[in-house]
Amino acid sequence: MGDKMQNGSFSLGLNKAKPYLAMASLQVGFAGMYVITMFSLQHGMNHYILAVYRHLVATIVIAPFALVLERKIRPKLTLPIFLRILVLGFLEPVIDQNLYYLGMKYTTATLASATVNVIPAITFVMALIFRLERVNLRETRSIAKIIGTVIMVPGAVIMTLYKGPAINFIKLQGGSQHSVSNDAEAKHWVAGTLMLLARCWGWSGFYILQSFTLKMYPAELSLTALICFIGTIGGAAVSFVLERDMNAWKIGWDSSLLAAVYSGVVCSGIAYYAQGVVIREQGPVFVTAFSPLCMIITAALGSIILAESVHLGSIIGTVIIIFGLYTVLWGKSKDQQNSTTEKGKVQELPITDSCAKSNNLEDSVDGPATVLKIPTESPSSRET
To answer: What is the pTM of this model?
Structure first.
């Protein structure tokens, strides 16, 4: 009996930890993608074509699993659902990815991962607009979410307008060469940061629309495959228009192939699917809660592998944004605790005196309505 209770509590604890473990693991994968992609872009990979190859790989990997595993549960693809998937396919794979690649090329991989910290605030604002979140100014948790969102704004402004001196946490021999490259792109720093912040708006919009689409089309693998397929077609169309050199499509056994395969499998295929599952359980704001972990890992890998320097403006802005981020998440956690408490309350059914008299429950009682508490019936009692 004791072993069964221990196994049951362990299983319950593991189920509760799954969303946290999934999102934390994704941040490690994202950090690797930032570094590998930056290395590929520095060695001449075209960012438009990289986005196409990334989602082509993701489509090839995810589509077979979707066809086999969801063949019995896949809903019918109606026109409203298809239109939503069409927007999803352009919003993240085409618009978001190209802004991200170009913005990171003009700045650093560390800054690209740091700007992701504003996504929770943007997602919260969008969720509020589309009524996925609620705010009551009389409640502390709602005020915390508003204050946290407001705090993130000056952090993003500092990251954009103030670069500051470079701070080398890990000094390597390749640092001087990279600093020369950074100086050549210094004039694009503000433009690159604005692209990265604009990309965050696109990513937040993707989360919100994905949340709505999953309610109509609850097949995560199929949805992921369709998004990546549409993103491949849309990205290819954009690339043919903006990149006329056909030699840019050539890819060898080098960092370009590694960037396409790694980002396609881990950051498009697996990430879209895992985010979709967690969004259905925890909501879009929860998914964005783990972005600071990605920034820390990226900063460490960027210093070691890319010899990147972290600038003072990025550090100050990031600290402010993280403070606002966890203020928002504190309010969100209180929302979840409150909803859990409300679900656990005993169901109560009001019975009026007239109903009571007609059913001979309390014939001699005159007065206000009484309350009949109905306990939850367990499965074992039903079987007996």
So the answer is: 0.69
CA atoms of 75 and 308, how far apart (whole Å): 47
Rounded-to-integer distance, Cα 286 and Cα 330, Å: 11
User: CA-CA distance, 113 to 303, in Å (whole number)?
Assistant: 13
What SS3 class is residue 51? helix
Residue 368's nearest CA partner among 376, 382, 381, 356 is 356
Cα distance between residue 292 and residue 272, in whole Å:
19
For residue 246, CA distances in Å to 46, 94, 137, 236, 270 come to: 11, 19, 57, 12, 30
Supply 111's token pair.
């800054």
Instruction: Walk along the chain (384 residues) and give the pLDDT tens digit of each residue.
Output: 556 666 667 677 777 788 888 888 888 888 888 889 888 888 888 889 999 999 999 999 999 999 998 988 899 999 999 999 999 999 988 998 899 888 888 888 878 887 887 887 788 788 888 877 777 788 888 888 888 888 877 887 787 677 778 776 555 444 444 443 445 455 688 888 889 989 989 888 988 898 889 889 989 889 989 999 999 999 999 999 888 888 888 888 888 899 999 998 988 888 878 887 887 777 766 776 677 778 778 877 877 787 777 778 878 888 888 888 778 778 777 766 666 565 555 444 444 444 444 444 444 444 555 444 545 444 444 444
In angstroms, what CA-CA distances link 284 with 42, 75, 117, 131? 33, 22, 14, 12
DSSP string, 204-258: HHHHHHHHHHHHH---HHHHHHHHHHHHHHHHHHHHHHH---GGGG---SSHHHH
DSSP state of 166: E
Question: What string of DSSP letters covers 361-381?
Answer: SSTT--SSPEEEE-PPPPHHH
CB 211 within 8 Å of CB 279: yes
